[in-house]
Specification:
This protein is mostly helical. It has one domain (6-381): Glycosyltransferase. The protein contains 13 helices and six strands. Helix 2 (51-65) packs parallel to helix 4, helix 9 runs antiparallel to helix 10 (258-274) and helix 11 (297-307) runs antiparallel to helix 12 (317-333). The protein starts with 5 loop residues before the first helix and ends with a helix. GO terms for molecular function: hydrolase activity.
Length: 382
């Protein structure tokens, strides 16, 4: 039984309350980023790259409260997401994992399980055999046009030949789950191959990560590595580090392979060595203007989400304990309390979507809400 405290119960209740107020505000739309001062949501019609997080939040709220409005909304949003989601994108597996497999954990619904398998099959089909990567793909991400380039833009490489540090998490968990559901080794083999290439292309010797790796479409050979959402190629995008930590944690849990644990320890050591005292990083760990730059709670909550899923004894005990410390910092220092006069209860503040452009750089982010809610739910029910 995972050790928890009263603050985690209260924090989970706050986040569930926030799901309720968000649903009242957004209705059939998908929440995306919320103003940090007012809590008002910017929405998308179809969820864009992260609609599965909202569906996952709705199912967690339903599971916790039994309120049918959450289940009804989750089903309605799933229909929209399933129709709109681009299959040739690294985000497809993540969205169908949450709207599919994790929904099935609550509902035991065969249709949800089948949606999860559809996401896994799409990821396998899009996997580039020579590069050993599930590429970024063709999904146009909602955000500042100057930063989120279209795949056919003259400003950057096609998404079909571009890998990303986040793919170890966005693309692989649906494959690990599909393997456990079916026993078909193609899912596990694809996940392991991608994860092994990730070790080569995205993790530097000192534990910091690259954001992107461009590869040759014919040979699969590495063309270049660069940072898009970091301050520079010599620094480190904080959320990318968080995605990497979450993905490596899952790879180690699924395989118990020492190479994933060693890489995880290096990336966490870099995080520890470059984060402020409250364990929530600036949007770039080494931004030269720190401390006068925004933090990024989304990087912190991804790290906590990954590490608190590790065994609390043996060789991962220190990593799990570090994840718990990050989680405590988030729930005590960045979550709006009950009765806040100016903002809704249960907002996870200070998320930075896009630091270089300044887009949504001090906001509540729907994906951060999901990882906080799921982490707390897992700790309270395991």
């Amino acid at each position: 039984m995972t050790a928890t405290n009263r603050s985690e119960h209260e924090a989970f209740d706050l986040v569930v309350d926030r799901v309720g107020t968000t649903l009242e505000e957004t209705g059939a739309a998908f929440p995306y980023v919320a103003d940090g001062e007012t809590g008002k949501w910017q929405v998308t019609d179809d969820g864009n790259w992260c609609g599965g997080h909202w569906i996952g939040l709705l199912w967690l709220a339903y599971d916790h409260t039994g309120d049918e409005r959450f289940a009804e909304a989750a089903r309605e949003h799933t229909d929209v997401l399933a129709d709109a989601m681009v299959r040739e994108a690294m985000f497809c597996g993540m969205n169908f994992h949450y709207a599919g497999f994790r929904a099935a954990d609550v509902t035991d619904d065969r249709e949800h399980r089948e949606l999860g398998l559809e996401g896994a099959d799409a990821s396998v089909a899009f996997y580039h055999q020579r590069a050993r990567q599930i590429p970024l793909g063709t999904l146009l991400i909602e955000g500042p046009s100057s930063e989120f380039r279209g795949p056919d833009s003259d400003e950057g490489p096609s998404g079909d030949v571009l890998g990303a540090v986040d793919a170890i998490y966005t693309s692989l968990p649906v494959l690990w789950r599909a393997y456990r559901e079916t026993g078909d080794p193609v899912y596990r083999d694809t996940a392991v191959s991608h994860a092994d290439r990730h070790l080569d292309w995205y993790i530097r010797e000192d534990g910091r990560t690259w954001h992107h790796a461009e590869f040759d479409p014919d040979t699969g050979d590495l063309v270049r590595q660069y940072n898009e959402l970091a301050y520079s190629d010599d620094t480190c995008w904080a959320r990318g580090q968080g995605w990497c930590i979450a993905g490596l944690t899952r790879a180690y849990r699924e395989t118990e392979a020492p190479r994933y644990l060693e890489a995880l320890e290096r990336t966490v050591d870099y995080y520890r060595s470059n984060v402020p005292d409250d364990l929530v990083p600036y949007w770039d760990f080494e931004h030269p203007d720190a401390p006068d730059v925004p933090r990024d709670t989304s990087a912190a909550v991804l790290t906590a989400y990954g590490l608190t899923g590790l065994p609390e004894e043996g060789e991962t005990a220190d990593l799990a304990a570090f994840g718990e410390r990050i989680l405590e910092s988030l729930t005590t220092g960045y979550l709006t309390p009950r009765g806040d006069d100016d903002r809704p209860d249960g907002m996870l503040l200070e998320g930075c979507f896009n630091g270089p452009s300044g887009y949504a750089d001090r906001n509540e982010l729907v994906w951060s809400d999901y990882y906080l809610a799921y982490t707390l739910h897992r700790r309270l029910t395991s």
